[in-house]
Design a protein that fits this description.
Length: 420
């Protein structure tokens, strides 16, 4: 641990000037005539809120800024739109459902469990229709996974656009799902599970959001999920049942899951042809780009989360993830990618889930060009924006996993920039 981080008890008791200069902020407060320490406060003088007033707890009013936000000019209507997770204000890795980004093509629908049906048909021995209660009777599993829209960071291809990590990287959430492996339902229906087959999955909403998934993935780790973070899915995340397709683009995570058809080739739906493909320089389309490659971003400091405490101890914090498995290492640069140091991982070993990283440093007040670079278990390392543009041209929308740069000035204000 850095010398400067050790709380100095001796100096604290003496109330010497060395405390203010050398220890973390706060230790100095005791020597001041701080009314929060010396005077009796309201909250200690009167009784608080009774348990009958909070049947379901909401964040305290002082946290009311920690909410999903949308970018109005991005889409024509809020019905077919997106809002963003406030990742600048969260820590750890689990995203509370209430502020986890939403993306839908025809609005979120209200579907009662009693009215819920899931059909499996196509190349199966016996087509089946499951009720919600039927699904609950299959052996279930719990797994934490990230869900990232392939369009996350898509506005940044052309240049540094949006001044906030919520908007540049907030089309992602990370939850603990409870669900039934899709392979169990396919087996129940006697599906043809030969490796050249596909499943076509669709939702009960007007858009239906149909997608083709190769059989190998369907049999691997796909979940038919009905709980997230321990409670029922929220309406906007597909209540009562959604598909969880670990590591693969969010569009395939069909919400309000209504039908699974076993087919002998990909359906080539709108969502996998006109959308969720990228046109390359030579005019060909980069297609079937299912896996979300390794990516990371510093969430604090960042434009919405400036440094407000001045010089001294500073915690740099961020998120890293890979659709290929585990994050093995994250490096952080303070000089725009010239020199790098290895960050401390909050917890290691999670597969296809968010990993939190930290760099605990002493800030001397000098401006910084902050970057982070994720590495995953395949040995892949997150590319720079230049490297990505070289490979993908200028016409891409989806799968922008490049290294992000924040310029932090001497006042601690952070800004979205590009370095070259
Ligand atoms: N039925 C249905 N499923 C859907 C969609 C939709 O519009 N309808 N949107 C998809 C897209 S593009 C994404 S990125 C994810 C977003 O999941 P979320 O709203 O839980 O964040 O859901 C996918 N599943
Ligand atoms: Mo998406």
């Amino acid at each position: 641990m850095d010398e400067m981080f050790k709380p100095s008890r001796r100096a604290f008791l003496k109330g010497s000037a060395a405390v203010a200069a050398g220890s973390v902020a706060g230790a100095a407060a005791a020597q001041n005539a701080d009314p929060l320490i010396t005077e009796l406060q309201d909250w200690a003088s009167y009784t608080g809120v009774g348990v009958d007033e909070t049947p379901y707890g909401m964040p305290i009013e002082y946290e009311s800024h920690v909410v999903r936000r949308n970018v109005e000019w991005l889409t024509a209507s809020p019905i077919s739109s997106i809002n963003f997770t406030p990742i600048h204000a969260l820590d750890g890795t689990i995203t509370p459902q209430g502020c986890a980004f939403e993306r839908h093509h025809s609005g979120a629908i209200e579907l009662r469990k009693e009215d819920y049906r899931l059909m499996i048909n196509g190349l199966v021995d016996k087509p089946l229709v499951f009720s919600y209660a039927d699904i609950e009777r299959f052996p279930r599993e719990n797994h934490v996974y990230f869900c990232e829209c392939a369009a996350n960071t898509g506005m940044e291809w052309a240049g540094a656009q949006l001044n906030g990590v919520q908007f540049t990287h907030g089309m992602i959430h990370n939850m603990e799902y409870t669900g039934v492996p899709l392979r169990a339902l396919l087996k129940e229906a006697g599906a043809d599970i030969s490796s050249d087959k596909w499943v076509y999955v669709e939702g009960a909403d007007a858009s239906s959001n149909g997608r083709s998934i190769p059989m190998e993935k369907a049999l691997d780790d796909v979940l038919v999920a009905f709980k997230a973070n321990g409670e029922a899915l929220r309406m906007e995340h597909g209540y009562p049942v959604r598909l969880v397709v670990p590591g693969w683009e969010g569009n395939m995570w069909v919400k309000w899951l209504r039908r699974i058809e076993v087919v002998d080739r990909a359906v080539e739906s709108r969502e996998e042809t006109s959308k969720y493909t990228d046109v390359l320089e030579d005019g060909t389309a980069r297609k079937w780009t299912w896996v979300m490659d390794a990516k990371s971003v510093i969430t604090s400091p960042s434009p919405q989360q400036p440094i407000t405490h001045g010089k001294g101890p500073l915690v740099i914090s961020g998120l890293a993830w890979s659709g290929h498995g585990q994050i093995t290492r994250v490096d952080v640069s303070k000089d725009g990618g010239i020199t790098w140091e290895t960050a401390r991982l909050g917890k290691q070993g999670d597969i296809k889930a968010l990993t939190r990283f930290y760099v605990d440093m002493m800030w001397d007040g000098a401006p910084m060009l902050l970057q982070s670079r994720a590495m995953d278990e395949t040995g892949y390392s997150q590319p720079t924006k230049e490297q990505l543009r070289e490979k993908r041209g200028e016409n891409s929308v989806y799968h922008n996993n490049c290294i992000q740069t924040w310029y932090v000035n001497a006042e601690g204000i952070a800004e979205n920039v590009e370095v070259s």
